[in-house]
Design a protein that fits this description.
It is built from two helices and eight strands. 40% of the residues lie in helices and 32% in strands.
């Protein structure tokens, strides 16, 4: 026969095991909900990347797709970087709502790293949030989105070929 103390110890162990199981289930549930939220929120971006890459491969003969950019201003453009059949680095710009696909040789203009460095040197941002290639007033531009030292949102549009600042929006 078990003593009262042994019964209490057995109940205490089973209670601790139940609490541990419940905590693990809650943690697993939170991770699952977080993952599902992340996957659902990134689905439109993933679909756009897949479609733009397929069009770039089909119409611009893009090989070895690498980076993907989304530009939203007057209209939306998806840009995929990679190489052409001759192995030269190219940028393929696909308009979201149809139209002509633009193919640019990377050597004809600035790279994303170059415009990032230009912005760092000229603006001294606290954080660069996004760099994207797009069309503004029929010119190819890099859009650099960043937060200044005061934490305010800023945008710079930099001409792809010349490196000149086309538009600056500061302190939003």
């Amino acid at each position: 026969m078990q003593s009262r103390r042994e019964v209490q110890q057995a109940q205490s162990r089973s209670s601790a095991a139940r609490r541990l199981r419940n905590v693990l289930l809650v943690i697993l549930f939170v991770i699952l909900v977080g993952w599902l939220t992340y996957a659902a929120s990134n689905q439109p971006r993933h679909a756009a990347k897949k479609q733009a890459t397929q069009m770039a491969e089909k119409y611009a003969h893009l090989q070895d797709p690498q980076k993907f950019y989304i530009y939203n201003r007057e209209s939306t453009f998806y840009t995929v970087t990679g190489k052409n059949q001759q192995g030269q680095p190219i940028l393929v710009m696909v308009p979201q709502k149809g139209g002509h696909i633009r193919v640019l040789k990377q050597s004809a203009g600035l790279t994303a790293n170059q415009v990032t460095n230009m912005t760092k040197q000229r603006r001294h941002p606290s954080t660069i949030l996004k760099v994207a290639l797009g069309i503004f007033n029929d010119k190819t531009v890099w859009e650099v989105t960043y937060r200044n030292r005061k934490g305010q949102l800023c945008y710079d549009l930099i001409n792809f070929k010349t490196g000149k600042y086309v538009q600056e929006i500061n302190n939003l």
